[in-house]
Amino acid sequence: MSKKYLVTGGAGYVGSVVAQHLLEAGHQVTVLDDLSTGFREGVPAGAQFVEGRIQDAARHLDASYDGVLHFAAFSQVGESVGKPEKYWENNVGGTMALLSAMRSAGVRTLVFSSTAATYGEPVSTPITESDPTAPTSPYGASKLAVDHMISGEAAAHGLAAVSLRYFNVAGAYGDCGERHDPESHLIPLVLQVALGRRASISVFGDDYPTPDGTCVRDYIHVADLAEAHLLALDAAKPGEHLICNLGNGNGFSVREVIETVRKVTGHPVPEVMAERRGGDPAVLVASAAAAQERLGWRPSRSDLAGIVSDAWAFARRRENAS
Ligand SMILES: NC(=O)c1ccc[n+]([C@@H]2O[C@H](COP(=O)([O-])OP(=O)(O)OC[C@H]3O[C@@H](n4cnc5c(N)ncnc54)[C@H](O)[C@@H]3O)[C@@H](O)[C@H]2O)c1
User: What is the C-alpha separation between 231 and 169, in angstroms, rounded?
Assistant: First the structure.
Protein backbone atom coordinates (compact mmCIF):
# COMPACT_ATOMS: atom_id res chain seq x y z
CA MET A 1 0.00 0.00 0.00
CA SER A 2 1.30 3.45 -0.90
CA LYS A 3 2.20 5.59 2.12
CA LYS A 4 3.46 9.11 2.64
CA TYR A 5 6.80 9.72 4.35
CA LEU A 6 8.82 12.73 5.44
CA VAL A 7 12.55 12.16 4.82
CA THR A 8 14.70 14.61 6.77
CA GLY A 9 18.18 15.01 5.26
CA GLY A 10 17.02 13.52 1.95
CA ALA A 11 19.37 15.78 -0.04
CA GLY A 12 22.33 14.02 1.61
CA TYR A 13 24.05 10.75 0.78
CA VAL A 14 22.09 8.10 2.69
CA GLY A 15 18.79 9.99 2.81
CA SER A 16 18.69 10.43 -0.98
CA VAL A 17 19.28 6.71 -1.57
CA VAL A 18 16.55 5.76 0.90
CA ALA A 19 14.16 8.35 -0.61
CA GLN A 20 14.81 6.79 -4.03
CA HIS A 21 14.02 3.30 -2.66
CA LEU A 22 10.78 4.59 -1.06
CA LEU A 23 9.72 6.09 -4.39
CA GLU A 24 10.54 2.87 -6.22
CA ALA A 25 8.36 1.01 -3.70
CA GLY A 26 5.45 3.29 -4.71
CA HIS A 27 5.41 5.63 -1.69
CA GLN A 28 5.02 9.42 -1.64
CA VAL A 29 8.10 11.22 -0.34
CA THR A 30 8.69 14.74 0.95
CA VAL A 31 12.31 15.66 1.58
CA LEU A 32 12.98 18.26 4.30
CA ASP A 33 16.57 19.46 4.09
CA ASP A 34 18.33 22.77 4.77
CA LEU A 35 21.13 21.95 2.29
CA SER A 36 23.75 22.61 4.98
CA THR A 37 25.74 19.57 3.80
CA GLY A 38 23.37 18.19 1.15
CA PHE A 39 22.70 19.13 -2.47
CA ARG A 40 19.44 20.16 -4.14
CA GLU A 41 20.24 17.97 -7.16
CA GLY A 42 20.70 15.01 -4.81
CA VAL A 43 16.95 14.93 -4.08
CA PRO A 44 15.51 12.13 -6.23
CA ALA A 45 13.13 13.09 -9.03
CA GLY A 46 9.60 12.33 -7.88
CA ALA A 47 10.13 13.52 -4.30
CA GLN A 48 8.64 16.80 -3.15
CA PHE A 49 11.39 19.08 -1.81
CA VAL A 50 11.02 21.49 1.11
CA GLU A 51 14.07 23.58 1.94
CA GLY A 52 14.01 24.02 5.69
CA ARG A 53 15.37 22.93 9.04
CA ILE A 54 14.14 20.07 11.22
CA GLN A 55 14.06 22.66 14.02
CA ASP A 56 11.01 24.04 12.14
CA ALA A 57 9.48 20.63 11.35
CA ALA A 58 6.17 21.66 12.94
CA ARG A 59 5.59 23.94 9.93
CA HIS A 60 5.85 21.06 7.50
CA LEU A 61 4.43 18.01 9.25
CA ASP A 62 0.73 17.13 9.40
CA ALA A 63 -1.48 14.10 9.95
CA SER A 64 -1.30 13.14 6.25
CA TYR A 65 2.15 11.58 6.90
CA ASP A 66 2.47 7.90 7.83
CA GLY A 67 5.97 8.25 9.20
CA VAL A 68 9.33 10.02 9.30
CA LEU A 69 12.76 8.76 8.25
CA HIS A 70 15.26 10.96 10.05
CA PHE A 71 18.72 11.39 8.48
CA ALA A 72 19.28 15.12 9.03
CA ALA A 73 22.33 15.64 11.23
CA PHE A 74 25.90 16.83 11.28
CA SER A 75 28.21 13.84 11.22
CA GLN A 76 31.88 14.87 11.14
CA VAL A 77 33.53 13.24 14.16
CA GLY A 78 36.59 15.52 14.12
CA GLU A 79 34.55 18.71 13.77
CA SER A 80 32.33 17.64 16.67
CA VAL A 81 35.36 17.57 19.00
CA GLY A 82 36.15 21.24 18.26
CA LYS A 83 32.53 22.44 18.03
CA PRO A 84 30.43 20.23 20.32
CA GLU A 85 27.71 22.89 20.66
CA LYS A 86 27.06 22.70 16.90
CA TYR A 87 26.30 18.98 17.31
CA TRP A 88 24.10 19.32 20.38
CA GLU A 89 22.09 22.14 18.79
CA ASN A 90 21.51 20.37 15.48
CA ASN A 91 21.46 16.67 16.25
CA VAL A 92 19.84 16.78 19.70
CA GLY A 93 17.95 20.12 19.62
CA GLY A 94 16.76 19.47 16.06
CA THR A 95 15.52 15.98 16.89
CA MET A 96 13.72 17.27 19.99
CA ALA A 97 11.82 19.72 17.76
CA LEU A 98 11.10 16.97 15.25
CA LEU A 99 9.72 14.60 17.92
CA SER A 100 7.56 17.39 19.29
CA ALA A 101 6.21 18.15 15.78
CA MET A 102 5.48 14.45 15.22
CA ARG A 103 3.61 14.25 18.55
CA SER A 104 1.51 17.33 17.72
CA ALA A 105 0.70 16.09 14.21
CA GLY A 106 -0.05 12.53 15.38
CA VAL A 107 2.68 11.02 13.18
CA ARG A 108 3.69 7.95 15.16
CA THR A 109 6.35 6.03 13.18
CA LEU A 110 10.05 6.94 13.10
CA VAL A 111 13.18 5.38 11.62
CA PHE A 112 16.34 7.10 12.85
CA SER A 113 19.96 7.02 11.55
CA SER A 114 22.02 6.12 14.56
CA THR A 115 25.66 5.10 14.33
CA ALA A 116 28.39 2.69 15.39
CA ALA A 117 29.98 5.78 17.02
CA THR A 118 27.50 5.35 19.92
CA TYR A 119 29.55 2.36 21.12
CA GLY A 120 32.98 4.00 21.26
CA GLU A 121 35.87 1.54 21.84
CA PRO A 122 34.38 -1.93 21.41
CA VAL A 123 34.64 -4.32 24.34
CA SER A 124 34.31 -7.30 21.99
CA THR A 125 33.93 -8.06 18.29
CA PRO A 126 31.50 -8.25 16.54
CA ILE A 127 29.59 -5.47 18.33
CA THR A 128 26.06 -6.31 19.45
CA GLU A 129 23.30 -3.89 20.48
CA SER A 130 23.59 -4.91 24.14
CA ASP A 131 27.28 -3.91 24.30
CA PRO A 132 28.13 -0.84 26.41
CA THR A 133 27.70 2.56 24.79
CA ALA A 134 30.59 4.88 25.58
CA PRO A 135 30.97 7.30 22.65
CA THR A 136 34.39 8.90 22.24
CA SER A 137 33.18 12.05 20.41
CA PRO A 138 30.43 14.66 20.80
CA TYR A 139 29.04 13.36 17.49
CA GLY A 140 28.61 9.83 18.90
CA ALA A 141 27.30 11.27 22.19
CA SER A 142 24.71 13.39 20.36
CA LYS A 143 23.43 10.34 18.47
CA LEU A 144 23.29 8.29 21.68
CA ALA A 145 21.36 11.10 23.38
CA VAL A 146 18.84 10.98 20.53
CA ASP A 147 18.52 7.21 20.92
CA HIS A 148 17.68 7.75 24.62
CA MET A 149 15.20 10.49 23.69
CA ILE A 150 13.46 8.15 21.24
CA SER A 151 13.27 5.35 23.85
CA GLY A 152 11.48 7.75 26.20
CA GLU A 153 9.12 8.91 23.44
CA ALA A 154 8.20 5.31 22.60
CA ALA A 155 7.64 4.33 26.23
CA ALA A 156 5.70 7.45 27.24
CA HIS A 157 3.84 8.38 24.06
CA GLY A 158 3.58 5.16 22.06
CA LEU A 159 5.95 6.10 19.22
CA ALA A 160 6.80 3.15 16.93
CA ALA A 161 10.54 3.62 16.48
CA VAL A 162 13.56 1.90 14.99
CA SER A 163 17.12 3.19 15.33
CA LEU A 164 19.53 1.76 12.79
CA ARG A 165 23.16 1.92 13.88
CA TYR A 166 25.14 2.11 10.65
CA PHE A 167 28.75 1.06 10.47
CA ASN A 168 30.67 2.38 7.40
CA VAL A 169 28.24 3.18 4.61
CA ALA A 170 29.74 3.02 1.12
CA GLY A 171 28.91 2.58 -2.57
CA ALA A 172 26.33 4.40 -4.65
CA TYR A 173 22.89 3.82 -6.10
CA GLY A 174 22.29 5.24 -9.57
CA ASP A 175 22.65 9.01 -9.40
CA CYS A 176 22.80 9.04 -5.59
CA GLY A 177 26.25 8.73 -4.07
CA GLU A 178 28.66 9.95 -1.44
CA ARG A 179 29.81 13.59 -1.58
CA HIS A 180 30.78 15.01 1.77
CA ASP A 181 32.69 18.29 1.92
CA PRO A 182 35.27 17.98 3.36
CA GLU A 183 35.35 14.29 2.56
CA SER A 184 36.33 12.16 5.54
CA HIS A 185 35.30 8.66 4.47
CA LEU A 186 37.99 6.27 3.28
CA ILE A 187 36.54 4.93 0.01
CA PRO A 188 35.69 8.34 -1.56
CA LEU A 189 39.07 9.68 -0.38
CA VAL A 190 40.96 6.85 -2.07
CA LEU A 191 38.85 7.35 -5.20
CA GLN A 192 39.87 11.04 -5.21
CA VAL A 193 43.48 9.81 -5.50
CA ALA A 194 42.48 7.56 -8.40
CA LEU A 195 40.80 10.55 -10.08
CA GLY A 196 43.98 12.61 -9.69
CA ARG A 197 42.36 15.06 -7.26
CA ARG A 198 44.68 14.04 -4.42
CA ALA A 199 48.32 13.01 -4.66
CA SER A 200 48.17 10.14 -2.15
CA ILE A 201 46.18 8.50 0.61
CA SER A 202 47.35 8.63 4.23
CA VAL A 203 47.34 5.38 6.19
CA PHE A 204 47.01 6.24 9.88
CA GLY A 205 49.00 3.52 11.61
CA ASP A 206 50.05 0.04 10.48
CA ASP A 207 50.90 -1.42 13.87
CA TYR A 208 47.39 -2.30 15.03
CA PRO A 209 46.70 -5.88 16.16
CA THR A 210 45.06 -6.78 12.82
CA PRO A 211 46.28 -9.15 10.05
CA ASP A 212 48.04 -6.39 8.05
CA GLY A 213 48.43 -3.86 10.91
CA THR A 214 45.89 -1.35 9.52
CA CYS A 215 42.44 -0.64 11.00
CA VAL A 216 39.57 -2.91 10.06
CA ARG A 217 36.09 -1.53 9.36
CA ASP A 218 32.74 -2.96 8.34
CA TYR A 219 31.63 -1.51 4.97
CA ILE A 220 27.99 -1.77 4.04
CA HIS A 221 26.55 -0.99 0.62
CA VAL A 222 24.18 1.98 0.75
CA ALA A 223 21.52 0.06 -1.23
CA ASP A 224 21.55 -2.77 1.34
CA LEU A 225 21.22 -0.09 4.01
CA ALA A 226 18.26 1.48 2.19
CA GLU A 227 16.45 -1.86 2.07
CA ALA A 228 16.80 -2.14 5.86
CA HIS A 229 14.94 1.18 6.25
CA LEU A 230 11.93 -0.09 4.33
CA LEU A 231 11.91 -3.26 6.43
CA ALA A 232 12.22 -1.14 9.59
CA LEU A 233 9.08 0.82 8.66
CA ASP A 234 7.19 -2.48 8.51
CA ALA A 235 8.74 -3.80 11.74
CA ALA A 236 8.10 -0.67 13.87
CA LYS A 237 5.60 -1.33 16.66
CA PRO A 238 3.80 1.31 18.79
CA GLY A 239 5.49 1.75 22.17
CA GLU A 240 8.66 -0.07 21.13
CA HIS A 241 12.08 1.37 20.32
CA LEU A 242 13.99 -1.26 18.39
CA ILE A 243 17.74 -0.72 17.93
CA CYS A 244 19.59 -2.69 15.23
CA ASN A 245 23.15 -2.56 13.97
CA LEU A 246 23.59 -2.47 10.22
CA GLY A 247 26.82 -3.91 8.91
CA ASN A 248 28.14 -6.81 6.89
CA GLY A 249 29.58 -8.58 9.89
CA ASN A 250 32.72 -8.67 7.78
CA GLY A 251 35.69 -6.38 8.18
CA PHE A 252 38.08 -5.01 5.57
CA SER A 253 41.37 -3.35 6.43
CA VAL A 254 42.49 0.06 5.17
CA ARG A 255 45.10 -1.72 3.03
CA GLU A 256 42.48 -4.07 1.56
CA VAL A 257 40.35 -1.06 0.61
CA ILE A 258 43.30 0.68 -1.08
CA GLU A 259 44.29 -2.51 -2.91
CA THR A 260 40.69 -3.01 -4.09
CA VAL A 261 40.58 0.57 -5.40
CA ARG A 262 43.82 -0.11 -7.31
CA LYS A 263 42.28 -3.21 -8.91
CA VAL A 264 38.93 -1.58 -9.74
CA THR A 265 40.33 1.70 -11.11
CA GLY A 266 43.65 0.54 -12.57
CA HIS A 267 45.31 3.52 -10.80
CA PRO A 268 48.47 2.96 -8.66
CA VAL A 269 47.08 4.97 -5.64
CA PRO A 270 50.23 6.02 -3.74
CA GLU A 271 50.07 5.60 0.05
CA VAL A 272 51.75 7.72 2.72
CA MET A 273 52.27 6.31 6.21
CA ALA A 274 51.09 8.55 9.04
CA GLU A 275 50.84 8.34 12.83
CA ARG A 276 47.85 6.62 14.41
CA ARG A 277 44.91 8.99 15.02
CA GLY A 278 43.64 9.21 18.59
CA GLY A 279 40.38 7.36 19.18
CA ASP A 280 40.63 5.00 16.17
CA PRO A 281 39.77 1.49 17.42
CA ALA A 282 41.68 -1.34 15.69
CA VAL A 283 38.55 -3.21 14.62
CA LEU A 284 34.91 -2.05 14.27
CA VAL A 285 32.68 -4.81 12.99
CA ALA A 286 28.93 -5.20 13.55
CA SER A 287 26.91 -8.17 14.52
CA ALA A 288 23.88 -7.82 12.27
CA ALA A 289 22.05 -10.74 13.92
CA ALA A 290 19.34 -8.48 15.39
CA ALA A 291 18.61 -6.83 12.03
CA GLN A 292 18.40 -10.27 10.49
CA GLU A 293 16.08 -11.61 13.17
CA ARG A 294 13.85 -8.58 13.79
CA LEU A 295 13.78 -6.98 10.33
CA GLY A 296 14.41 -10.05 8.17
CA TRP A 297 17.34 -8.13 6.64
CA ARG A 298 20.32 -9.68 4.92
CA PRO A 299 22.90 -7.61 3.04
CA SER A 300 23.37 -8.93 -0.49
CA ARG A 301 26.13 -6.63 -1.77
CA SER A 302 28.88 -7.44 0.75
CA ASP A 303 31.65 -7.86 -1.81
CA LEU A 304 34.16 -5.00 -1.40
CA ALA A 305 35.04 -4.89 -5.12
CA GLY A 306 31.33 -4.41 -5.95
CA ILE A 307 30.95 -1.63 -3.38
CA VAL A 308 34.06 0.14 -4.72
CA SER A 309 32.96 -0.32 -8.37
CA ASP A 310 29.62 1.38 -7.69
CA ALA A 311 31.32 4.23 -5.83
CA TRP A 312 33.85 4.57 -8.68
CA ALA A 313 31.11 4.75 -11.34
CA PHE A 314 29.41 7.53 -9.33
CA ALA A 315 32.68 9.43 -8.76
CA ARG A 316 33.52 9.30 -12.48
CA ARG A 317 30.05 10.47 -13.51
CA ARG A 318 30.40 13.45 -11.15
CA GLU A 319 33.89 14.19 -12.44
CA ASN A 320 32.68 14.14 -16.06
CA ALA A 321 29.71 16.36 -15.19
CA SER A 322 31.86 19.02 -13.46
N1 LIG B 1 27.63 7.99 6.02
C2 LIG B 1 27.93 7.15 7.00
O3 LIG B 1 28.85 6.32 6.89
C4 LIG B 1 27.11 7.16 8.27
C5 LIG B 1 27.44 6.24 9.30
C6 LIG B 1 26.67 6.25 10.46
C7 LIG B 1 25.60 7.12 10.61
N8 LIG B 1 25.33 8.02 9.63
C9 LIG B 1 24.19 8.94 9.83
O10 LIG B 1 23.37 8.89 8.67
C11 LIG B 1 22.77 10.17 8.44
C12 LIG B 1 23.04 10.58 7.01
O13 LIG B 1 24.44 10.65 6.80
P14 LIG B 1 25.04 11.09 5.39
O15 LIG B 1 26.37 10.45 5.26
O16 LIG B 1 24.02 10.91 4.34
O17 LIG B 1 25.26 12.66 5.68
P18 LIG B 1 24.97 13.92 4.72
O19 LIG B 1 25.69 15.05 5.34
O20 LIG B 1 25.24 13.57 3.30
O21 LIG B 1 23.39 14.12 4.89
C22 LIG B 1 22.80 14.81 5.96
C23 LIG B 1 21.73 15.72 5.39
O24 LIG B 1 21.03 16.38 6.46
C25 LIG B 1 20.86 17.76 6.12
N26 LIG B 1 20.71 18.49 7.39
C27 LIG B 1 21.61 18.61 8.40
N28 LIG B 1 21.09 19.32 9.41
C29 LIG B 1 19.81 19.64 9.05
C30 LIG B 1 18.75 20.35 9.68
N31 LIG B 1 18.90 20.89 10.90
N32 LIG B 1 17.57 20.47 9.03
C33 LIG B 1 17.41 19.95 7.78
N34 LIG B 1 18.38 19.28 7.13
C35 LIG B 1 19.57 19.12 7.76
C36 LIG B 1 22.07 18.12 5.30
O37 LIG B 1 21.90 19.24 4.47
C38 LIG B 1 22.29 16.82 4.49
O39 LIG B 1 21.59 16.85 3.27
C40 LIG B 1 23.35 11.12 9.48
O41 LIG B 1 22.40 11.24 10.52
C42 LIG B 1 24.60 10.39 9.97
O43 LIG B 1 24.87 10.72 11.31
C44 LIG B 1 26.05 8.06 8.45
Answer: 18
